[in-house]
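Request: Show me your protein:
***
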Amino acid sequence: MFEVIPAIDILDAKCVRLKQGRYDKETVYSGDPVQIAQRWEAKGAQRLHVVDLDGARTGIPKNIEIIKTIAKHVNIPVQTGGGIRNIEVIQELLDFGVNRVILGTTAVKNPNTLGLYCEKFGDSIAVAIDAKDGKAATEGWVKISKKDIFTLAKEAIDLGVRRFVYTEISRDGMLTGPNFEAIKDFIAQVGVPVIASGGVSSKDDVEQLKAIGAEGCIIGKALYEKKLKLEEII
């Protein structure tokens, strides 16, 4: 079943959106991310995508207690990422009810560690492919690696990864529509479930992502700016 997944990005304990991942292009939507999570659940969300932006940038999860509280106070699956780079944090999040942990920088910089995580946690691990000009971005999208996204994805699959979250950074927070060709190409290349993110701004965008084979899509700014009504697209 195709999932429409609201994004909750947390920076300094507030629910925000960034433009193209830029921390200097921040819009604050709420001081209460837990209340936002409950609101999306009430509107019919099938899953939530929660990102610790402080953790993504620094490599040290800062909003973990808020994320655990969200998982406790909603009855739908929660997936989360951002600065999660050791096994203890993964275990803690899963123990507190998080359904899926998304790793990005770890996949690029520490592939052997990624393999161990996949062996231990199985389908509870997904990898974020954050694409900029065909290369993988790391550390909250602040740095661009030399590794191209297809090489990274193949290595991750060989290590046991069975799901990706694919984001086209140039589209994120811009309301300009996804890069459908890039997403379609990536889905065809990897052969495992892919959740698409970045630029979704209309019901047609959602339908097209469904048509090209995405497992789901993550929507942020379009929901917060009321360009889309969640209850009309699920």
